[in-house]
Amino acid sequence: MRLRQVVDVLEQIAPLELAEEWDNVGLLAGDLRQSVKKVMLTIDLTKEVLAEAQQAGADLLAVYHPPIWEPLKRIVARQGASPLLYETIRSGRAIYALHTALDAARGGVNDVLAEVVGIKEAQLLAQARVETGKMCKLAVFLPESDLEKVSEAIFAAGAGTIGANARYTKCSFHCEGVGTFQGSDESNPTIGQAGRFEQVRELRLETIVPVDKIGAVVKAMRAAHSYEEAAYDVIPLLDGQNVKGLGRFGDLKEPASVGELVVRIKNKLKVKTVGLIGPQRGEVKRAAVCAGSGGSILRSVIRQGCDFYLTGELRHHHALELQEAGLTTACVGHSVSERIILPRVAKRLKSECKGIEIFISRKDHDPFTWS
């Protein structure tokens, strides 16, 4: 496969628009035309990981944490943090970073952590943002006599298509209502008289339009419309598949004690120790999760009335705030909270990238040793 094809699959798994604005995700190094036979997944790019990739002959390193964070002024063999990047690029290996795009994606890191805790129907935390999608709705008001002419005009201009590969076309909805207006003496209304308050039976015609075609569709609608001044709305639509937010929360499938949850987390994440904040006994009915560093969304966790919070790490003052709130919090280590996603990504790549080898680094590990 070409790198371009593998990148397309990675962008489907973790859409780039879901990443936080401060993040650096996507293809960081490489030639989209280069051939890819082996892909190695890892949380971090380290000397040991790169040596493993070189020995295994991996053409692409799909990393979780971006090894290029701040703008680089130079990439050289023996200076600062760049030797690792220099060696990776010099050897012809591409680098692709997933990070917060994979955190926020459907089926991504936070959804998997929600499964670990036992949350049913995991929801985004309150402070999550919703992105505007690539579609909008056109609603136009018209007399019944205009319905067929206007409909055909806007469909021809690109409106009314729904589903992959244009599975459905000429999709619309219309309903009846009453429109009011009062034209000036200089007006020339199609229905009614100038200078008089009018109430007329009209239809509201609605359809969906790609954002890049809305100009042409509106132009076609106005040309086919019989009114001197057509009344219409263009409404941006929110993309329900691309909802941004790093955390998840929800009620547990079955209430559990704090002790039971801690044991479950240790077993699922394969860790021996967990840092606990707040009450260490009691029943948990609602929980929240956030991979990596979870301090930035802790107030959303508190507002949602959660009893338990699973995250990777916290700053000291965030830990104190959670303690004061009486919210039991489990910290498992930054990269430990993220590593669980790698087998899921590997499985997805294997199913969609036939003919290439996908494997997870054996040298990638948490930098901390817990004893």
Which descriptors apply to this entry?
Udp-n-acetylmuramoylalanyl-d-glutamate--2,6- Diaminopimelate Ligase, Chain: A, domain 1, Alpha-Beta Plaits, 371 residues, single chain, alpha/beta, five-stranded mixed sheet, six-stranded mixed sheet, 12 helices, globular
Give an account of the 3D structure.
This protein is α/β, with parallel strands linked by helices and 371 residues long. It has 3 domains: 3-98 and 341-360, 3-Layer(aba) Sandwich (Udp-n-acetylmuramoylalanyl-d-glutamate--2,6- Diaminopimelate Ligase, Chain: A, domain 1); 109-129 and 245-337, NIF3 (NGG1p interacting factor 3)-like (Udp-n-acetylmuramoylalanyl-d-glutamate--2,6- Diaminopimelate Ligase, Chain: A, domain 1, 3-Layer(aba) Sandwich), CATH 3.40.1390; 131-242, Alpha-Beta Plaits (2-Layer Sandwich). The protein has 12 helices and 15 strands. It has a 6-stranded mixed sheet with strand order 5-10-12-13-14-11. β3, α3 (82-90) and β4 form a beta-alpha-beta unit. α1 packs across α12 and α6 runs antiparallel to α7 (214-224). The longest helix has 12 residues, at 258-269. The model has no long low-confidence stretch (mean pLDDT 91).
Write the layout of secondary structure elements.
Layout: H1 3-13, E1 26-29, E2 38-42, H2 47-56, E3 60-63, H3 82-90, E4 94-97, H4 99-104, H5 109-117, E5 123-124, E6 130-142, H6 147-156, E7 173-182, E8 197-210, H7 214-224, E9 231-243, E10 248-257, H8 258-269, E11 275-277, E12 283-293, H9 298-303, E13 308-313, H10 316-324, E14 328-331, H11 336-339, H12 342-352, E15 357-360
Parallel strand pairs: 2-3, 2-15, 3-4, 12-13, 13-14
Antiparallel strand pairs: 1-4, 5-10, 6-8, 6-9, 7-8, 10-12, 11-14
Helix pairs in contact: 1-12, 6-7
